[in-house]
Amino acid sequence: MTDVKNNLHEVLANLPDGVQLVAISKYHPNEKILAAYEEGQRIFGESHEQELKRKHTELPADIEWHFIGHLQTNKVKYIVPYISMIEAVDSLKLLREINKQSLRCGRTTDVLLELHIAAEETKYGLSLDDCRQLLEGGEWREMKGVRICGLMMMASNVDDKEQIRKEMLTAADFFDEVKARYFADADYFRHRSWGMSHDYRIAVECRSTMVRVGTTIFGEREY
Ligand SMILES: *Cc1c(COP(=O)(O)O)cnc(C)c1O
Questions:
Q1: Is residue 1 pLDDT above 90, yes or no?
Q2: Which of 196, 208, 216, 220 is the best mutation target for the ligand 1 pocket, counting ligand atoms within 8 Å of the beta carbon and taking the most?
């Protein structure tokens, strides 16, 4: 039996002040989520719309849900009413849809732009140039239904710590560039979401402000 409470406290003990923990609860049962909740954890991350919908209705209302997976535009309308942050926005099309659906329910949705820096082909996300282009285009400035609050990325899934570090520092430098150019006066543009179970300790050394840890807290996922 996984000792969720103990694992949670171990992870929290490794996080410096100012780094938020998103407990990634995808494929984990409600009991485990509640165990972390009872210890004070309030931010949880899910990557499937149906599972999120079910958990959102079954679990306490003050949980802040982050959507961390690849989001299809046709699913946006289902999660927008209650999502606290959509972390992985990887296209202008998706941003437009989040804006549209948010305006429809009279709210503003916090989002992060997902960067593709890892060497793997399979990862989603915007290349640095695509991200620059999206921001330079300026359409997002008119979107009253979304607020771009920072950047998110996944490093390559490798053992080479130096490669992971290099990718995360590339993201951190890019954050500074974007912050200076487009969000210098926007306090809300402050999130750098990188670091998972196997690399979150490296991530906090690479200026992460938000780590997304699942397995280390909840154990292996039950697919
Ligand atoms: C599943 C997932 C995580 C958590 O992964 P663990 O290895 O279980 O910590 C973090 N970020 C994203 C985008 C994920 O899909």
A1: no
A2: 196
**Single-letter amino acid code for the residue at 192:** R
pTM over 0.70: yes
Alpha carbon of 155 to those of 167, 179, 181, 206, 218: distances in Å? Answer: 6, 21, 24, 12, 21
Give me ligand 1 centre to Cα 68, in Å: 8
CB distance 221 to 26 below 8 Å: yes
Which of 165, 167, 172, 166 has its CA nearest to residue 207?
Answer: 172
Give the Å distance between the CA of 77 and the centre of ligand 1.
23
Question: Each residue of 37-79: pLDDT tens digit?
Answer: 999 999 999 999 999 999 999 999 999 999 999 999 999 999 9
Q: Is 191 helix (H, G, I), strand (E, B) or coil?
A: strand
Q: Which of 165, 178, 173, 96 is nearest to 130 (CA)?
A: 178
